[in-house]
Write a structure and sequence with these properties.
about 15% strand; alpha+beta; Butyryl-CoA Dehydrogenase, subunit A, domain 3; 4-stranded antiparallel β-sheet; Acyl-CoA_Oxase/DH_mid-dom_sf; globular; 10 strands; Butyryl-Coa Dehydrogenase, subunit A, domain 1; about 50% helix; single chain; 4-stranded mixed β-sheet; 3 domains; flavin adenine dinucleotide binding; flavoprotein; Butyryl-CoA Dehydrogenase, subunit A, domain 2
């Protein structure tokens, strides 16, 4: 059969392609120049936040009815991927804004959506997600943070750990136990504001990678919030948290894709320039095979991630499997690809004068957060399509 140019399966729409080009240009102009300093100084990438907010790319997933761009799941993936290609820390701005606010989008009352999604869309405050605790990581249902009803209020007490962008975000989706007898069915979700009395933050964690994105503990000391800040019905918080992760694991896959693409792009350029034995090292078959494997793994991860994003948009039955598979596969691929990029640069790859060692350090967390890759495999096995 002759080529059919209008055969649109397995390729991005024109709008998605244009979005990628727009974000790539912005990322290279406004975010990339600061990436090394952000990592070196372990400081929040304010330049990236300003640039993303000015271009309305900081929280593209917010529906148009609340003042957002109303971007679909694939568009959100493209934004995160292109930002992560130059700076993984900065890609956590759109990614965690989605993670933190998606429980409100999925389960919140109309009033709650209006109250919090509008400011998020405008860029008046970021959103973080508080699920993990010191003793409740992979076993999130074992959390101890409590919320006790007091008239028209709930009073929260507890500690959340590993909270991305804590201290910078204005808003926090917090999971807390409202009925200790019911384990996961006794967990409810709430919106807590940074300015609520009794909210405080621990010191920033000293991390291997994503150093520009602050990770801190969040403390709740008799934090009294109005009852209408509960997200969904009492006892549905854990179900909302899990449903959220089905969608947002795909954003971690996107982050992994971007990091890996950045490393591959850099390594590809380097092997064409670096000469040994009288010719570019890219002419040696051993090097070519490494690049071929890197590109192949990356493309396989990208196809899986984009397919998962389409399922996220359509909310298909096998989304749980595909979300876990995309996150797991893409993050494992990113770790392999960035490690190989360091190898291809030799001794230079091991120094901070070149970006690939940063990318390798940044890639590691994608195998750990939003559910370790061991947990992803459990999720996949329980949800085989």
């Amino acid at each position: 059969m002759a080529g059919a140019p209008d055969f649109d399966l397995y390729r991005l729409s024109e709008e998605h392609t244009m979005l990628r080009e727009t974000v790539r240009a912005l990322a290279e102009a406004k975010i990339a120049p600061h990436a090394a300093a952000v990592d070196e100084e372990a400081r929040f990438p304010q330049e990236a936040l300003d640039a993303l907010t000015a271009a309305d790319l900081h929280a593209v997933h917010v529906p148009e009815s609340y003042g957002g761009a109303g971007a679909d799941a694939l568009a959100t993936v493209l934004v995160i991927e292109e930002v992560a290609r130059v700076c993984a820390s900065s890609s956590l701005i759109p990614a965690v804004n989605k993670l933190g606010s998606l429980p409100v989008v999925l389960s919140g009352s109309e009033e709650l959506k209006k109250k919090y999604l509008g400011p998020l869309a405008k860029g008046d405050g970021m959103f973080s997600y508080c699920l993990s605790e010191p003793d409740a990581g992979s076993d999130a249902a074992g959390m101890k943070t409590k919320a006790v009803r007091d008239g028209d209020f709930w009073v929260l007490n507890g500690v959340k750990r590993w909270i991305t962008n804590a201290g910078v975000s204005e808003y926090y989706t917090v999971m807390a136990v409202t009925d200790p007898e019911k384990r996961s069915k006794g967990i409810s979700a709430f919106v807590v504001e940074k300015g609520d009395e009794g909210v405080s933050f621990g010191a920033p964690e000293k991390k291997l990678g994503i150093k520009g994105s602050p990770t801190r503990e969040v403390y709740f000391d008799n934090v009294r919030i109005p009852a209408d800040r509960m997200i969904g019905a009492e006892g549905t918080g854990f179900a909302t948290a899990m449903k959220t992760l089905d969608h947002t694991r795909i954003t971690i896959a996107a982050q992994a894709l971007g990091i890996a693409q950045g490393a591959l792009d850099y390594a590809k350029g380097y092997v064409q320039e670096r000469k040994q034995f009288g010719k570019p090292i890219g002419d040696f078959q051993g090097v070519q095979f490494m690049l071929a494997d890197m590109a192949m793994k990356l493309e396989a991860a990208r196809q899986l991630t984009y397919a998962a994003a389409a399922k996220s948009e359509r909310v298909e039955n096998d989304l749980t499997f595909f979300g876990a598979a995309a996150k797991c596969y893409a993050s494992d691929a990113a770790m392999e690809i960035t490690t190989d990029a360091v190898q291809l640069l030799g001794g230079y790859g091991y120094t901070r004068d070149y970006p690939v060692e940063r990318m390798m350090r940044d890639a590691k967390i994608t195998q750990i957060y939003e559910g370790t890759n061991q947990v992803q495999r459990i999720v996949m096995a329980r949800n085989l399509p």
